[in-house]
Amino acid sequence: MAQARVGYGDRMQLRVAVWGTGNMGATAIRSLRAFPGLALSGVITSTPDKVGTDAAVLAGLDDTTGILATAEADHVIADCDAVAYMASGDIRPDDAAADIERCLRAGVHVVTPALYSLYDPTSAPAELRDRLSQAAEAGGASLFVSGVDPGWGNDALAVLAAGLCTRIDTIVCQEIFDYSTYDQPYSVRELCGFGKSLDEVPMMLLPSIPTMVWGGNVRLIGRGLGLDVDEITEELERRPLDGPVDNVMGHFEAGTQGAFRLKVIGKVDGRPRVVIEHITRIDPACAPDWPTPDQGAGDHRVIVHGDPELTITVRADVPGGTRADGGNTTATNRLLGALSWLAQQKPAIYDGLEVPLRSDNPPTVEAARWSAD
């Protein structure tokens, strides 16, 4: 395993490469510039036009880093201690797994949101779990997988919320979001189906796909609460746009999909106990009778139905950015904040209940994460 470190006062820094230069990759670059204990060491891109571009430009920063994006992954992996793997796994799960295995076998720790099935390693497909566990053991490295919606809201925060209640009937992790500013055209139109006919079912909403994506979160929360989830079901509602809509994502015709409400429901002995729910719109006026955010473009909520009835609402805003940028940032920082802890553990795959919520890279008075104002 790579051992060299970069000095940071009396600390030592982990050299972290970012693999992927989309929304999450750009967020990881911005965050790495501010995390004490972590140093950006390289950027890997699959987009030819981005090769040779300074990392700061890719992240929308004003300065330069001197670190240029490259498509030569081997060179970057050989010169880092950890990889923040932010490339998509939505439509290329096999490629993502192969990339992550490559890093682990090279002795490089990996944090990623790309492999849904490993949100709960205990219920992941044995072939994938064993393959990556063996790679981690062979390389002396570790892996942490957490989500982007955001992962901490669908695991540790839910378990914490339940611990505040005397009685729990059902616990719901809810994302309420307006996708009109989410700069991912393929995800918005193709994966989620916005602007498509209601006669077509988009990939993300096909039967069994939601369970593949969020079933691990359901089982992980159940495990954290001492529940043996024995059945997972899905519920889906879709609504059309009443009129045409134009926003930064383009034009959407009246009558096409304007909103969906998706539930992935974990049951114990036939009773709903853990629910992951997504209420997603391409226009805030669509489906007004469904839950809406308290303010702005979106909320993440953990709702415990029981005694007491408890709701925790989380909003994250990035100056000059969208609510999606805020959610991406918190999800990314959960992953990056785990790296120093991960580097001290035995080689293995870790989940959101095992990785401490406390960052092992806390801000100090001197650290860049404190505002200068």
UniProtKB/TrEMBL annotation:
Superkingdom as given in the UniProt entry: Bacteria
Domain 2,4-diaminopentanoate dehydrogenase C-terminal: 155-323
Protein name, per record: Dihydrodipicolinate reductase
Pfam families: DAP_DH_C
